[in-house]
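Hello again, I could really use a second opinion on something today. I've been staring at a protein lately and its backbone has me curious. Please have a think about how the structure follows from the sequence. I owe you a coffee for this, so here goes:
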Amino acid sequence: MKIAILVEGSTEKAFLPHLRVFLSGRLADRMPRLMMRKYDGPIPKERKLRVTVENLLNAGDVADAVIALTDVYTGKNDFADAADARAKMRGWVGQDDRFYPHAAQHDFEAWLLPYWSQIQK
């Protein structure tokens, strides 16, 4: 299985090796191939997100699934909260069961702060 992950920046992309280690201990012989598509800012919205997802899923063997990870606070008032962000992304892309919208109520980096001492090690 190949999974494309749409992310907003370098921090999320830097987390990829740690995600692989986490998953490999749980998936063993079923480990998917993960590839990140990094944007320097918010991931695409509306039609552009739909086209991006369609291209990844329907262009031969690029991806079997797409995960979109956005922050709620993108610098604009795009989303009211995480549930709204997921609902809007789902609406923009449609009911494709190979698309998984996810949203961080706070910036992705805020998820890392409770673990800062372990990250520094």
Summary: Residues 3 and 38 are 14 Å apart (CA to CA). The longest helix spans residues 46-58. The first strand starts at residue 2 and ends at 7.
